[in-house]
Amino acid sequence: MHIHGNLGVTLLEQGRLDEAEDELRTALDGLDATVGPRHPSVGRVRRDLGRVLLARGRPAAAEAELLAALEILRASLPADHPALAQVEARIDEVERP
Questions:
Q1: What's the rounded Cα separation, in Å, for the pair 67 and 72?
Q2: Contacts of 24 (CB under 8 A, 6+ apart)
Q3: CATH architecture under which domain 2-93 falls
Q4: Where are the domains of the chain?
Q5: DSSP conformational letter for 57
Q6: Could you read off the pLDDT of 32-52 as tens digits, one per residue?
Q7: Can you give the pTM of this predicted structure?
């Protein structure tokens, strides 16, 4: 499943947002089935999916993914872990209506 997540991030960086979203959703489905929905890898994929959704102009969906990612990562990482700061920064980017 990590290959789908890595490919999704690469596609995001290339601006290929439809494909990025598809790959990240595939990764998320696979991880949910194999490691469960609370695993840190799921949190990282949800963070990246939030980035894609934000880039696609879907702030509400992006915020939902980013908040879910933050909850998962807070439960499994130390409070000063850089991944938490990354997610919090992305949440700050979400434009509120």
A1: 9
A2: 4, 5, 8, 9, 45, 48, 49, 52
A3: Alpha Horseshoe (1.25)
A4: 2-93
A5: T
A6: 999 999 999 999 999 999 999
A7: 0.92
Q: Long-range pairs for 51-60 at CB < 8 Å and ≥24 separation? A: 51/12, 51/90, 52/8, 52/12, 52/17, 52/20, 52/21, 52/24, 53/21, 54/90, 54/93, 54/94, 55/12, 55/17, 56/17, 56/21, 59/94, 59/95, 59/96, 59/97
Q: What are phi and psi of 94, to 5 degrees?
A: -65, 125
Dig out the tokens for 42 from the structure: 């799921």
Q: How many residues does the chain have?
A: 97
pLDDT per residue as tens digits for the range 57-79: 999 999 999 999 999 999 999 99
Do the Cβ atoms of 49 and 24 come closer than 8 Å? yes
Lookup: tokens for 92: 């700050």
**Secondary structure (DSSP) of 20-45:** HHHHHHHHHHHHHHHT-TTSHHHHHH
